[in-house]
Amino acid sequence: MDALRTLGAEVKPVRAVPYKDPNNYVKMSGRLASEMENAIWANQFDNLANRIAHYETTGPEIWGQTDGKVDAWVAATGTGGTFAGVSLFLKEKNPQIKTVLADPMGSGLYNYVKTGEISSEGNSITEGIGNSRITKNMENVPIDDAIRVDDKEAVRVVYQMLRKDGLFMGGSVGINVGAAVALAKQMGPGHTIVTVLCDSGARYQSKLFNREWLATKNLLPDEV
After folding, report:
1. 3-class state of residue 75 by DSSP
2. Sheet strands (E) in the chain
3. Mind listing the pLDDT tens digit for each residue in 125-175?
4. Which one, of 194, 224, 195, 222, lies nearest residue 209 by Cα?
């Protein structure tokens, strides 16, 4: 928010409320755009240009870099564009590739994949991923399974990546990699499993990389 203000934007923070609430940030942004002159609302959750971009670029990049020898694709969803676009592309190339949705606590998508009904339980410190609805980007997307990753595992993974791999990543990466590790244990040795490191840790200094804040959430990893 500070960066946006520095660049000259007027920032309107809103409470985190479900999509059904008229004050949800997606609905609020659309409403504001309709009331303003010269405004463009990207509508990233339901704008199919989102998943098309990943169908045309990210999917082919994964296919090319693995020489087509990919067994599973696993990722969390926010808008759903990355997961959807890559899943659609890879399934066209090889229907046997498993597409697995990674989900934090507090999101309803894990239960949707498992039971067909959107319902959530618990909550998560992760930001920008998970959902309580099926976005346009996620409609009619092949999903073979879902894996839920809790905050403790996500934080452990983030700090392992930082300390052992030299990768400074955000919370959504903890969900992605945590789910990829869980999937690897399910599938066993000899498989190529792909996920995406979609977020730098630089945005999370005040929370994920703040020892005092983590301690208040009982999430301080052992190696800190």
Report:
1. strand
2. 72-76, 98-104, 145-149, 193-194
3. 998 899 989 999 999 999 999 999 999 999 999 999 999 999 999 999 999
4. 224
